[in-house]
Model the fold of this input.
Amino acid sequence: MLNISQVSKLQGGEVLYSNVNFQIYPGEKVGLVGPNGTGKTTLFRMIIGEDKSFEGQVSFPEKLRLAYFSQNVGEMKGATALEVVLSGDEKVQKLQDELKGYEEKLCDPDLDPDEMNKILERMGDAQTEFEKRGGYDLESRAEEVLTGLGIMPEDHRKDVSEFSGGWKMRIALARVLVIKPDLIIMDEPTNYLDLETILWLEEWLQNFEGAIFMTTHDRDFMNSICNKIVEVAHRRVTVYSGNYDFYEKEREVRRAQLVSEAKKQQESIAKDEEFIARFKARASHAAQVQSRVKKLEKIDRVEVPAEEESINFEFPTPPRGGDDVIVIKELAKTWPKPDGSELQVFNGLDTLIKRQDKVAVVGVNGAGKSTLLKTICGHTEPTAGTVQIGPSIKLGYFSQFSFDVLNPESTVLEEAQGALPEASDGYLRNLLAAFLFRGDDVKKKVRHLSGGEKSRLLLAVLLSQNNNLLILDEPTNHLDIQSREVLLTALKKFEGTIVFVSHDRHFLRELTEKVYEVGQQKVTIYPGNYDYYLQKTAP
Done:
C-alpha cells in the first residue's frame, strides 16, 4: 500500500536519516516513535507530498485514498462544524454535484433518447462510486463522529468560529475520520482530548478497516491500536513487529545483541591489528600481514547507536508536614450561567487527604476537575464549605496557565536560578539534565521552547522547591513518552502528597492510590487505585 524505499533526508545541512526502507500494508496499524527533533513529522510531510526535498522514493497506488491529521488545523470560519466535517471528502461533494446535474438534465422533456441513455449510464457510474464512498450516509456518519469526539448534536450547526482551538482540533479530526480512507496518517491525535474521548477514538480506530500510521505520546493508546512500530532515532529508521510494549523490550534485546556482536568484532580486529604490528617487518610473514590488512579494510564495522543518556538525580526530600494535609468540609461550588441561573459543579464534599496520598481526580470533560483543584489551591472561592491546608504544608500548583509565569527573554538556566536562588550552578544543571535539558539546551530562551519543554522546566522547578503538596492539572500535556516517564519516575519517588488530573492511563495506573470522580454535581471517592476505580465503574 505504502512503500518507502531508500529515502534519505537532509535538514539544515545535517543528515536526518538515510536509506530508509519500510512498507505499510492494507489494514496495518503502525505507530511512529522517536525522540523530539528526529524527523517524525517530516516523514509524514514527505509521505503526503508537502516535503519533496529528499532522496529515494515514496510510492503508493494511484487510487489510494489518504487522509492526514496534524496539529495545524488551519483557519476555520464561515461554516458550521458539520459543514466543515462534510467538506473533508471532496470527491463525494463532487459526485453529489454531478448527480444533481444529471437529475436536472433528465427533467428536460425534449431530451434526445440516445442522450438520455448516455446520461443514465454516466449517472449509474456516479451513483455506484457515490455509494462506494459512503455518500448516502455521510451526514449521519459525520454527526456520529462529531458526537463521539465530544461535540454534542446541539452544537453541530454552530459556526466553527465559536469553538476554541482545542475543539477545532476535534472538528478537524472528525473531518479526517469521516472520509474512511484507505490510509490515515495522524500526528498526535490525542492532544487536547479528555479520557472519555480518547477511549471513544481508540475503539473507533480499532474497528477501522483501513491502515493507520500515527504518532502519539499516549503509550496505552498506541498499545491498544498498533501492531507494528517504526522507530526514528540515531539517523536511522528501524521496524518492530508488535505494539509499543513489545518495541521497548525488543529494542533492548536487539541492542544487547549488537553490543555483543561489536565486542566480538573488536576482539577479532584487535588480534589482527596485533598480528600486523608484530610481523609487518618480517618478509617471511608479508603475505599473511597483507591478507589481514585487506581483511580489515573490507570489514563492515558493527555500529552501536549511542545509548539514551539517563541521569540519576535525587530530588530533595520535602520537609515533613502534618498528617492531615487537606481537610475539606461541606465543600460546594457553583458557577453563574448567562441566563442568571447557577451551574452546580459539586456539593457537600467531605474528605480528608492524608500525608503521602496520591489522589487522581477524574471525570468527563467539563465536569469540574480543574475547578476542584483550583478550589483546593485557593485560586477560586468555594460557594459553601471550607478547604483547610494542614500545618507546615507547602503547596506547589501546576496548571496549563503556569506558562504565563515564565519570562520569554530568560534562558532555561536563568529561569531555574530565579525560582531556586539558593541552589548551586551544578545542582541546577543536574536538575535540568534530569528533565532532558542537556548541554547547550540550558542556554535556550524560553520564547524558543516548545510546549513540552516549558512543561518540563516548570515541573523540574516545582519538584525542587521543597513543596510537600503538589496539585497538578494535566502535567502530562505536551510531554512526549520519554518526558512522561521522567516525570512519572520523579513523582513515584516524591515523599509528599499529590493530587492530580491526567488523561494518560499509563500515568494514572502507575501513580494513583485513590480516585476522586467529579460528575453529576458531586465528587465520588473510590478508595483504591485506578484499576479498582475502573472495576467499580464498569457498566
